[in-house]
Amino acid sequence: MFVKTYAGAIVGIDAVTVTVEVNLAESGLGLYLVGLPDNAVKESEQRIRSAFENTNLRMTAKRLVVNLAPADLRKEGAAFDLPIAVAILAATSQVVDEMLSSTMFAGELALDGEVKAVKGILPLVVKAREEGLKRVILPIDNATEGAVVEGIDIIGVRSLAEVVGYLNGDIAIEPTLSTNVVEGLESLNRYAEDFADVKGQAQVKRALEIAAAGGHNVIMIGAPGSGKTMLARRLPSILPPMTLDEALEATKIHSVAGKLGTSVGLLTKRPFRAPHHLTSQVALIGGGQSPQPGEVSLAHNGILFLDELPEFGRNVLEVLRQPLEDKTITVSRARYSVEYPANFSLVASMNPCPCGYYNHPTKECTCPPSAVHRYLSRISGPLLDRIDIHIEVTPVPLAEMMSERQEESSEVVRQRVMRARQIQSERFRGVGIHTNSMMNSKMLREYCPLDERSRLLLERAMAQLNLSARAHDRIIKVARTIADLAGEENIGVRHISEAITYRSLDRESWGR
């Protein structure tokens, strides 16, 4: 007897439909699993046999051939347990196969027949809907995640016995209701951190507002305890709420990486990732023996915060250069090549020197004269060039810290950022980008013309600060964002002038 049903395999952050074919032969013994399965899939035979035994189901003694098609695509993970088990049950006439042709299955089987949660459910459900399937049967712990996708029934199950009862019509399982994702994005986009918590630091807040408005990368340099980390962690609170498309894409990445948990259906807040400085290259960019998204992809549509930037390995930092430019990361290995999205804003912080007190207003730096340059040289010039805004963070005076004055809230700043983002959306409609930071050289000429005074000012700054061509473009992009925040159509001298001040870490101007 021949039976088939459907499962899914993850490639990058998307799913590929896998047809699970089972043939029950009249002669021979044993179960043969083919179709390029990895070890976890091969081990499914033992889990399925134990689950059958503990659920009062029978495993035939006849020869079973299970094929996972397409045969040239490597199948990984335990999510194939449930579809293989159901196909075997249908081939041995223990379940009715009426619904199998319109159903995708996913789930890991415990030895007692429990159906356990798996990674990557959201892209699987999206693929099932695209293929025109009517339902997805999956672990109850993944049901909330799957229900984000409308137009397909999500059947959450706790055990193999429930699956058998549902397919045979003995029990009824109501589909998990889809959540109102648009309403969720609006109501849950709230942050515990607020800019109002930070006393003073008006100049740094201004720089972060510009970074949020234009999607720019920013690095903060200052003494320990000056508020760099506190400010960085509040940056997401002034970013615009994610659109539905952004939320779905970010959720798919976290789903594939197994970072969602069982109670989260859709990410409603922009990701904020802060890896430790001992993070490896693979953990940062993704990959591994079984490819997984790295921190740069988990920060997609959000913030990647690297605290104490010089403490990261030089090789680790250099891998950021490509995703900062291309907004994607391609991981190529001998067995695979996958592409992950990586459209994040980099926020970095660092001390000015090893002791941390270079340029401190009250404490004396104890480092040798060359230590500042040597410390900064841990960050390559090409990487610094890709960071649009460099801002110095000075300690807040005690009197200002103890002040009762109410600081501007994140909500007020966010409204200005959203107005600037709206201007950019209108400007780049149909172009394929949505923030100033994403403009290429051709777009700079089209959208960022400079008048004579602005051009001369930028030329003098380039010559005096010995800036690179990439820094030249970054200054214009930041100036365009400053003009958008001011609601002005053209870039003026004051916009260029302010943008130039945000290049303080360039080699020839720092530490002299």
Provide a descriptive summary of the structure in words:
It is a single chain. The model has no long low-confidence stretch (mean pLDDT 89). The chain has a five-stranded parallel sheet with strand order 11-14-17-10-18. A four-stranded mixed sheet has the order 1-2-4-3. The longest helix is centred in the C-terminal third of the chain and has 18 residues, at 410-427. It has helices spanning 39-42, 44-54, 81-91, 121-130, 143-146, 160-167, 181-187, 202-214, 228-233, 244-256, 281-285, 295-298, 314-318, 321-326, 371-376, 381-385, 398-401, 410-427, 441-447, 452-465, 469-485, 493-501, and strands spanning 2-11, 14-29, 31-34, 62-69, 103-105, 108-109, 115-116, 135-139, 153-157, 218-222, 272-273, 286-287, 292-293, 303-306, 328-332, 337-341, 345-350, 389-393. It is of the alpha/beta class and 512 residues long. A hairpin with a 5-residue loop joins strand 6 (108-109) and strand 7 (115-116). 45% of the residues are buried. Helix 8 (202-214) runs parallel beside helix 18 (410-427), helix 8 packs across helix 21 and helix 21 (469-485) crosses helix 22. 37% of the residues lie in helices and 18% in strands. The chain has 22 helices and 18 strands. The radius of gyration is 27 Å and the shape is elongated. It folds into two domains: 2-167, Ribosomal Protein S5, domain 2 (2-Layer Sandwich), CATH 3.30.230.10; 186-501, Rossmann fold (3-Layer(aba) Sandwich). The protein starts with a strand and ends in an 11-residue tail after the last helix.
